């Protein structure tokens, strides 16, 4: 399929926009020579990406507003401008080892839809808004969907401002440094509907030969930051039985996560990751006295998630006793599973059918701003497949021009149906 088959938007213009934004905060991965993206939230690179997208919004004639947590909204007036808008969006912040599609497809896809309305000289009945939210990834300040959680009332602005990264820099300080502390009240007036186009970031659509994912919702997410305090000691002279090795304790927790999943007791969909493992002092001949690590649990079933969390806490206590270490932890992110609006799912499926695109329902393994927006209004997502088993949070992340055009073509039809309905 080539992008010209998707006749309602300009797939080549969309892909050029993805490539241009993908150069902001770009780097070349030494080992592979692949071009990656590092626009970690509220860093200068994120600031540059934000200014680039704001410029694109203004060039499309949108009225741009920035709220106090740095969420950015570009508004296109409707024939009846008093009506609640149809909003499309996502995020442009990235993890440090990103590709150029995660989040950006949703934001630049929204702008492509607006450019298409401009090309047609069409004014929709309702206003249309393209948005990007602050720090969706949570990789720097430890809480994901930060901007959309504040916009929809799950997180208080003051609590968000106070979050600090590993260097002790607060969200407010970082947001001020890049010049994106806006004046607009951060609590969003509910839109008529919210739509987000996003790469699947997993292997399901590619493996099934599907072109569109009709996203049914998002699984539950639970993040811990765990501090394990033992005792630094000489690696050569300290007998094993006298050690209080924080590194061994962390390793045992990590392996237990794997065993929990293997037991099947927490459902077939459970996933667990110890993404960060930071030993202190982290040197070859010293038993680690302290380890700060993270635990990321995912589960499509809330009940199984709660049972898994209880088991993880029980195991922390067991390991603390057996390894003679102290284990403290804090919950840095926690969201229940979210179901997307059935009407939006229906519209996505109908639009995919109209374009002759193979599609199927799919639950999202990743968190998205859409799950926060679902608190405010009917919300839904359009997934597009990625190549290479849909790898993501990796420079290898890739969706073809055709796949991106198909997803945004569906996004356009669903937006139009809602905005003119
Ligand atoms: O972690 C997630 O699911 C998302 O990429 N922030
Ligand atoms: Mn994303
Ligand atoms: Mn991501």
Describe the 3D structure.
The chain is of the alpha+beta class and 421 residues long. It folds into two domains: 300 residues, Zn peptidases (Aminopeptidase); 116 residues, Alpha-Beta Plaits (2-Layer Sandwich). It is built from twelve helices and 18 strands. The strands form four sheets. Strands 3, 4, 5, 6, 7, 8, 16, 17 and 18 form a nine-stranded mixed sheet that branches. Strands 9, 11, 12, 14 and 15 form a five-stranded antiparallel sheet that branches. A hairpin with a 6-residue loop joins β1 and β2. α8 runs antiparallel to α9. The radius of gyration is 22 Å and the shape is globular. It starts with 10 loop residues before the first helix and ends with a helix. The mean pLDDT is 97. It binds (2S)-amino(hydroxy)ethanoic acid and manganese (II) ion (2 copies). (2S)-amino(hydroxy)ethanoic acid binds next to loops.
């Amino acid at each position: 399929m080539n992008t010209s088959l998707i006749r309602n938007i300009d797939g080549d213009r969309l892909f050029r926009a993805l490539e241009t934004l993908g150069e902001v905060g770009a780097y070349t991965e030494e080992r592979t020579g692949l071009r990656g993206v590092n626009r970690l939230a509220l860093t200068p690179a994120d600031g540059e990406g934000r200014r680039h997208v704001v410029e694109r919004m203004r060039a499309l004639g949108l009225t741009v507003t920035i709220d106090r947590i740095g969420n950015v909204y570009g508004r296109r007036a409707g024939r009846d401008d008093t009506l609640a808008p149809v909003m499309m969006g996502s995020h442009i912040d990235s993890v440090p080892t990103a590709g150029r599609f995660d989040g950006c497809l949703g934001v630049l896809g929204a702008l492509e839809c607006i450019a298409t309305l401009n090309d047609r000289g069409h004014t929709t009945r309702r206003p249309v808004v393209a948005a990007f939210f602050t720090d969706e990834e949570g990789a720097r300040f430890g809480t994901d969907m930060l901007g959309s959680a504040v916009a929809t009332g799950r997180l208080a602005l003051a609590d968000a401002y106070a979050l600090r990264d590993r260097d002790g820099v607060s969200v407010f300080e970082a947001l001020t440094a890049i010049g994106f502390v806006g004046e607009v009240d951060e609590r969003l007036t509910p839109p008529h509907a919210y739509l987000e186009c996003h790469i699947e970031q997993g292997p399901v659509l590619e493996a099934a030969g599907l072109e569109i994912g009709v996203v049914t919702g998002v699984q539950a997410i639970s993040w811990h930051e765990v501090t394990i305090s033992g005792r630094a000691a000489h690696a050569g002279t300290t007998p094993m039985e006298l050690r209080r090795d924080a590194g061994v304790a962390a390793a045992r927790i990590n392996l237990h996560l794997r065993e929990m999943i293997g037991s099947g007791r927490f459902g077939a969909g459970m996933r667990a990751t110890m993404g960060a493992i930071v030993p202190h002092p982290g040197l070859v001949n010293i038993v680690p006295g302290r380890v700060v690590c993270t635990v990321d649990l995912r589960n499509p079933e809330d009940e199984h998630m709660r049972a898994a969390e209880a088991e993880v806490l029980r195991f922390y206590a067991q390991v603390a006793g057996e390894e003679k270490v102290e284990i403290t932890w804090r919950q840095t992110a926690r969201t229940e599973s979210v179901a997307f609006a059935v009407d939006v799912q229906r519209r996505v499926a109908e639009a995919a059918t109209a374009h002759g695109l193979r599609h199927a329902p799919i639950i999202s393994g990743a968190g998205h701003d859409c799950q926060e927006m679902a608190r405010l209004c009917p919300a839904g997502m359009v997934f597009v497949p990625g190549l290479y088993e849909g790898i993501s949070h990796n420079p290898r992340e890739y969706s073809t021009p055709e796949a991106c055009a198909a997803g945004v073509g569906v996004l356009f039809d669903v937006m139009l149906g809602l905005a003119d309905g």
